[in-house]
Design brief:
The complex is a heterodimer of chains A (about 550) and B (about 725).
Chain A: H1 2-8, H2 58-67, E1 73-76, E2 87-93, H3 97-104, E3 105-107, H4 108-113, E4 128-133, E5 139-148, E6 159-165, H5 168-180, E7 184-185, H6 190-197, H7 205-227, H8 231-255, H9 265-294, E8 296-302, H10 308-316, E9 334-340, E10 343-349, H11 359-374, E11 377-383, H12 390-405, E12 414-419, H13 427-435, E13 442-445, H14 454-464, H15 481-502, H16 507-521, H17 529-540
Parallel strand pairs in A: 1-7, 8-10, 8-11, 11-12, 12-13
Antiparallel strand pairs in A: 1-2, 2-6, 3-4, 4-5, 5-6, 9-10
Chain B: H1 4-27, H2 30-42, H3 51-67, E1 70-72, E2 75-78, H4 82-93, E3 98-102, E4 116-118, H5 122-132, H6 136-142, E5 144-150, E6 160-165, H7 167-179, E7 184-188, E8 191-196, E9 202-207, E10 212-214, E11 217-220, E12 229-232, E13 235-238, H8 250-256, E14 262-268, E15 271-273, E16 283-285, E17 309-313, H9 316-324, H10 330-333, H11 347-353, E18 361-366, E19 373-377, H12 385-392, E20 403-405, E21 408-414, E22 432-434, H13 444-462, H14 476-486, H15 511-522, H16 527-549, E23 551-552, H17 555-565, E24 573-574, H18 575-579, H19 586-591, H20 601-612, H21 614-631, H22 649-658, H23 663-668, H24 674-702, H25 706-712, H26 714-722
Parallel strand pairs in B: 1-10, 2-3, 2-11, 3-7, 11-22
Antiparallel strand pairs in B: 4-6, 5-6, 8-9, 9-10, 12-13, 12-21, 14-21, 15-19, 15-20, 16-17, 17-18, 18-19, 23-24
The chains are: A alpha/beta (about 550), B alpha+beta (about 725).
Main location (chain A): plastid
Pfam families (chain A): MMR_HSR1, MnmE_helical, TrmE_N
Family (chain A): Belongs to the TRAFAC class TrmE-Era-EngA-EngB-Septin-like GTPase superfamily. TrmE GTPase family.
Chain lengths: ~550, ~725
């Protein structure tokens, strides 16, 4: 009888929790403390272990079910760096894989239904076509999403594979979006490891995996070490030390209340602000890396017939755009690729923006505005012949407002180009340079016909994007995916810390996110924060009764 | 109590019995499963003590005692301090015939140092022990001289209650409780040996005067007594505390069994006569007007008159006197090198290490209502007695003070607790438990926390029941024990809130909802307490429901909420969302008649915390959930770490020493890297599968010989169920 029972039961239960309904308390069937019995082991007795709080409400435990497991991982699983492949795959695995994918992936049909807020509920092993969007809702790539729900997947967890275009930049951006949505970057061999730990793969493979993991993690550690030398490492280290210092100040007050002088909150908040700023800088650097990979988008806008197309042609040394004397020749966005001191850039020549009744031109104007919104740098062209006109002012105002309404966190820097420089007396120029110096980061004079001023323009572009070709000390390190994730988690923690402070939550709540920030920053070294903070407290403060 | 317990137990364990076999099948190897099954089949009556079987047990012991020169018990607790009392009481309350051996009956639950209970993190420990059905909280509530809530504005998780206690009253009250339990026998004795059976299991203890006491479980709570030596200046004598003899011989006995021992040091300041102190110039420190309580049992909530503490400071004279005589102190003179706690540095340590600080705070705390003694907190010293009075007299207010007892330091043996598993049973000797300062902790609260766990487990072990382990994230008790047995600590360990990774979940207010169900299941929470607990939880739940549904619009209330929080109040806002606003407390609801009169203050606090910090609490919980599954993976006890070539050499050594019980524990050992943990996981998984394959084959083979298997396994199972 007993033996029959054994055979009937599945060998391995994914969730070893057992709710223990308490007969004394019939109203609460979700009784909370779990009797956990030890998993397979040779000589351990059953132990009663408690991990629950009865007061946490029922809805929570329902939610808990979804988060069981050890996090969701993501990685590019197709080979990188080789020749361009047709397809590349980003794989997500873990309990929240579907939720993460749901945040970045929009199935095409859903877009039409305008149901972005509905959680994505994929059917296992059914391919869906759609787009991957970034945080701001911009389309990164069109992809096929292949959901493989637990346990019918490689890792026996929920797995979602996003099949993207096989371009490295694309893949990295998709991966980044996944990380931003809450996945963590997979360690080398982690998918296979999970597959193995969850009961897949043959036993004979275990040893190979072990060898693979230890070799790879050694290699990863090496490369991580290599990565943390130089600028990035010193930044992370100093941020981490500052976190620990702040924690020391706070924790000392919590554990030894009556023995310490009160805390100076303004200076503390100042410190936090400075750290947040440093962090933002570092993330900007990460974005700089992104720029290096994906290239700059430079939109040339302006009223009709100021020479935008000529500028594009002169810059790209081609006859890419049609140039005529007729205002409104360019109806659509014309692209041309150039390389600015080694950085790939795409020039976008746009239709001249003006009020028009022409249907075709109207669409062109709309597209011009869209191009301007998505660009990394906006070049506003005016003609030296006409000088700064009312329409120019209106146009720029229009662009600014639409930027604001698009809710972009960072507006692209703008450069004013005064074209047809050869055709105008100089005296007039000075005045409108003054007028619009607040709007534009740079003013460059060019002559599209002769090509004069183009190299100045290139320099200006690099300058406004902070991409000086001359490396200023300590700013030239690159941030890899793992480091990016580290910074991202730290920043998230800081944002939450900021809200805690603003909402005037008690001090203890500050420590939660500071700890998390310190943890995220220390991930490479994996130190024990509690011990470090304590040591710091005892060395810094005179404590004891 | 004694008569209630068995009934309670039988009731409680009925559902348990039904669930065990299923758990066992799901989670352990099949071979084990079989033994568990047969174990359960064999013992259903054995694990349920009825009143009659219990009584007959007692008579058996008496008979044997008459025949031979020995006594038999279920559990022996050595030491009557804060760990010993909790252990003995827990064990006796669970129905085990328990013997408490102590060197001096008049010093039961003595507070040799600070006459206080609680403080940050320590108060959480007290609440938790109380929630499990322990005694320390009730005692502190009954014998307080003053109570204060610390960290009031710093967050619900770090809020801490601290009580000054009447140390004589405390000891007497505890003695009464200990004496009044019919399962608990007390005897003055000095234990010099533990008696070991053939299978490295404990059999009992031998005393200095030649008595043997026998029991299948023994809890050692030797405090500072094992080879204790006290120091005043250069003079020293063997003693556990001033005026009490040390316990000699046990250290050597334990060493001969293969235990590692080491030495720790702590100290206590001088006591002065309060009638000789001029309080007029000192800053008084009063207790809270609204008194808070450690115990969740309202029966203990009896308010009493409070006494006042005073604050004074060291002066430049104090500092000069110490600097001039540094070589007269043990640490700086160099004749004691045991490590003292960082949390209680001597005054000379403070002055040497923090040279720049001109003055240090010193608290004067009364030791009781009927004694003139004042405890000079923050002023422990190793200076010789002839200098101590002069030193005390440099403090403002103490210019003419009379010293009643000199400050002294004490050195004692402890057993680094990596030698225990998380049940506090030693890994070497089955049935031997360690608790309190013997494990390297300091503090009454830490001792009590370990005491109750070892008492529970000693009783369960003697009954053949599985032992109990509190996971790290379940409680401060769990965190404390996990730290002790995992980290190779070489300085006295004090509980601090920063030691807990998820302290927001381990608050004082929810200690009962975290632990009382467990206490109930173990059998330490009686029907009255359980009813109180359940109705409290129900009231809290209903109140949260009510706040979610009641909406308010405008009026004085909304206006005041807007001023207090600095946020506008929309019409038809629920009381719940009002309570979520910054600075809005439940009190404000009460003030405007929106509160619930049926709730006690502490229930209102619970409601407020649950609602106000719901987001944070939820986030922490989901965090925890993410790590818990992996962390709780069990590691076999008999792993040969040295043979695991995928581990680094350092971690092979460390892991072999600590022998962690779970993956989480392994990861907390210093020097064990994440890569090592991965390697361990792989190793465990492949072993599990190998064993799985083996048992499957065995099962196939032995399918026909069911009976044979069932008959052969019980002997195994007893060992497995008891050895940890």
């Amino acid at each position: 009888m007993a033996l029959a029972l054994i055979r009937l039961l599945p060998w391995r239960q994914p969730k070893p929790h057992h709710l223990f309904p308490f007969s004394l308390n019939p109203t609460k069937t979700h009784f909370l403390f779990h009797l956990r019995h030890c998993q397979a082991s040779t000589s351990s007795p059953k132990t009663l272990i408690l991990t629950q709080d009865e007061r946490s409400n029922g809805s929570l435990s329902a939610e808990r079910e979804a988060i069981v497991g050890s996090g969701t991982i993501a990685a590019i699983v197709t080979s990188l760096g080789g020749g361009p492949a047709a397809v590349g795959i980003v794989r997500l695995s873990g309990p929240t894989a579907v939720a993460v994918a749901g945040q970045v992936f929009r199935p095409v049909k859903r877009v039409k239904e305008e149901g972005g807020c509905v959680a994505w509920r994929p059917k296992s092993h059914f391919v869906e076509y759609g787009y991957v969007l970034d945080n701001d809702g911009n389309v990164i790539d069109e992809v096929l999403a292949v959901p493989m729900l637990a346990p019918r997947s490689y890792t026996r967890e929920d797995v979602v594979e996003l099949q993207c275009h096989g371009n490295d930049v694309c893949l990295h951006r998709v991966l980044r979006a996944c990380l931003e949505a809450g996945a963590t970057l997979a360690d080398p061999g982690e998918f296979t490891l999970r597959a193995f730990l969850n009961g897949r793969l043959d036993l004979s493979q275990a040893e190979n995996i072990a060898r693979l993991i230890s070799a790879k993690s050694a290699a990863a550690a090496d490369s991580a070490l290599a990565g943390i030398q130089g600028g990035f490492s010193s930044l992370v280290k100093s941020l981490r030390i500052q976190c620990i210092e702040l924690l020391t100040e706070l924790e000392a007050r919590l554990d030894f209340e009556d023995e310490l002088p009160p805390l100076c909150f303004p200076s503390l908040i100042d410190k936090i602000r400075v750290m947040q700023h440093d962090l933002q800088d570092a993330l900007d650097t990460a974005n700089y890396d992104k720029l290096l990979q994906s290239g700059l988008q430079i939109a040339i806008i302006g009223r009709p017939n100021v020479g935008k197309s000529s500028l594009l042609n002169a810059w790209s040394k081609s006859e890419r755009a049609i140039v005529t004397e007729i205002a409104g020749t360019t109806r659509d966005v014309v692209e041309a690729n150039v390389s600015i001191h080694g950085i790939p850039a795409t020039l976008l020549d746009t239709a001249g923006i003006r009020e028009t009744d022409d249907i075709v031109e109207k669409i062109g104007v709309k597209r011009s505005e869209a191009a301007a919104l998505a660009a990394d740098v906006i070049i506003m062209a005016i003609s030296a012949v006409d000088g700064w006109s009312e329409e120019d002012a209106k146009l720029i105002e229009h662009i600014m407002t639409s930027q604001k309404s698009a809710n972009q966190a960072m507006t692209a820097p703008m450069i004013l180009v005064i074209n047809k420089d050869d055709c105008k007396p100089k005296d007039l120029l000075i005045s409108f340079e003054e007028i619009c110096s607040g709007l534009f980061k740079k003013v460059v004079r060019t002559c599209a016909l002769t090509g004069a001023g183009i190299s100045e323009l290139e320099k200006a572009v690099l300058e406004v994007r902070g991409l000086e070709p001359i490396s200023s000390a300590g700013r030239k390190w690159t941030v890899n995916q793992r480091q990016f994730e580290q910074l991202l988690r730290t920043q998230e923690a800081f944002v939450r810390l900021h809200t805690s402070i603003e909402e005037q939550l008690p001090m203890d709540f500050w420590t939660i996110d500071l700890r998390e920030a310190a943890l995220a920053l220390g991930q490479i070294s994996g130190d024990d924060i509690s011990e470090e903070v304590l040591t710091s407290i005892f060395s810094k403060f005179c404590i004891g009764k | 109590m004694a008569s209630a317990t068995p009934r309670l137990l039988s009731f409680l364990f009925t559902p348990l019995r039904l669930t065990y076999p299923i758990h066992a099948i799901r989670t352990s190897h099949r071979s084990r499963t079989l033994s568990f099954l047969s174990f359960n089949l064999r013992r259903p009556n054995g694990r349920l003590r009825t009143v009659s079987s219990f009584a007959s047990n007692g008579t058996n012991g008496m008979e044997r005692m008459g025949q031979k020169d020995e006594e038999r018990y279920d559990v022996i607790v050595v030491g009557g301090g804060h760990a010993g009392c909790e252990a003995a009481l827990a064990s006796a309350r669970l129905g085990a015939r328990t013997l408490l051996l102590t060197l001096n009956l008049d010093r039961i639950a003595w507070q040799p140092c600070n006459p206080a209970v609680g403080g940050p993190a320590k108060s959480q420990l007290v609440h938790e022990v109380d929630a499990l059905g322990g005694e320390i909280g009730k005692m502190a509530d009954r014998c307080y001289l003053q109570k204060r809530v610390l960290n009031l504005s710093k967050g619900p998780a770090v809020r801490a209650l601290r009580a000054q206690t009447d140390k004589r009253e405390y000891a007497m009250e505890m003695k009464k409780v200990v004496e009044s339990n019919s399962n608990l026998f007390i005897r003055e004795a000095m234990v010099t040996e533990v008696l070991i059976g053939k299978n490295d299991n404990i059999q009992g203890v031998r005393t200095f005067f030649g008595m043997d006491f026998f029991a299948p479980s023994v809890v050692l709570t030797t405090g500072t007594f094992m080879s204790g030596k006290i120091w005043v200046g250069r003079a020293s004598m063997p003693a556990g505390r001033a005026g009490e003899s040390a316990s000699l011989g046990l250290t050597e006995n334990l060493q001969s069994l293969g235990f590692e021992t080491d030495r720790l040091k702590t100290g206590t300041p001088a006591r002065v006569d309060c009638r000789s102190v001029d309080f007029s110039g000192l800053e008084p420190q009063y207790g809270d007007e609204e008194v808070s309580w450690f115990s969740f049992d309202p029966e203990c909530h009896i308010e009493r008159e409070q006494m006042c503490c005073y604050l004074t400071r060291t002066t430049s004279e104090t500092h000069k006197l110490i600097r001039d005589n540094l070589n007269e102190t043990p640490t700086y003179g160099g004749w004691v090198d045991a490590k003292g706690p960082r949390y209680c540095p001597s005054i000379e340590d403070k002055i040497v290490r923090f040279r720049d600080k001109e003055s240090h705070q010193i608290f004067l705390e009364p030791e009781g209502r009927t004694v003139p003694e004042l405890y000079v907190q923050g002023f422990s010293t190793g200076l010789p007695e002839r200098l101590q009075l002069a030193l005390l007299r440099t403090l403002p207010g103490l210019e003419n003070c009379v010293m009643l007892r000199p400050a002294y330091a004490v050195e004692y043996d402890f057993l680094p607790a990596y030698q225990c598993s998380r049940s506090l049973m030693t890994k070497k000797i089955e049935g031997l438990f360690f608790s309190g300062q013997i494990n390297g902790t300091t503090g009454y609260e830490e001792a009590a926390a370990q005491g109750i766990i070892s008492g529970i487990n000693a009783a369960r072990h003697s009954e053949g029941k599985p032992v109990i382990v509190l996971e790290r994230e379940s409680s401060y008790i769990g965190t404390l024990i996990d730290d002790l047995v995992t980290k190779d600590l070489r300085e006295p360990y004090r509980m601090l809130t920063s030691r807990s990774e998820h302290r927001l979940l381990l608050r004082a207010d929810n200690a009962d909802s975290r632990l009382t169900p467990l206490g109930r299941e173990i059998g330490l929470i009686d029907d009255r307490r359980w009813d109180l607990y359940q109705s409290k939880q129900l009231r809290i739940k209903e109140e949260k429901e009510r706040l979610k549904n009641v909406r308010v619009s405008g009026g004085e209330f909304a206006a005041e909420v807007a001023t207090v929080s600095g946020q506008p109040v929309r019409d038809h806002t629920t009381l719940e969302s009002i309570l979520k606003k910054p600075h809005v407390q439940y009190k404000l609801l009460d003030k405007h008649g929106f509160g619930n009169e049926n709730l006690s203050k502490c229930e209102k606090d619970c409601v407020e915390i649950d609602i106000k910090y719901a987001g944070f609490i939820m986030r922490q919980q989901s965090h925890l959930q993410q790590i818990v599954n992996q962390e709780h993976k069990r590691l076999p006890e008999d792993l040969d770490y040295y043979s695991m070539t995928t581990l680094s050499h350092e971690s092979r050594e460390k892991l072999s020493k600590v022998r962690p019980q779970t993956i989480g524990q392994a990861s907390r050992i210093g020097g064990v890297s994440p890569a090592d943990i991965t390697a361990l996981l792989i190793w465990v998984e492949s072993n599990r599968r190998k064993a799985n394959q083996r048992t499957q084959q065995e099962l196939l083979r032995s399918g026909a010989t069911d009976n044979h298997m069932a008959a052969s396994s019980p002997t195994d199972s007893v060992v497995q169920a008891t050895a940890i």
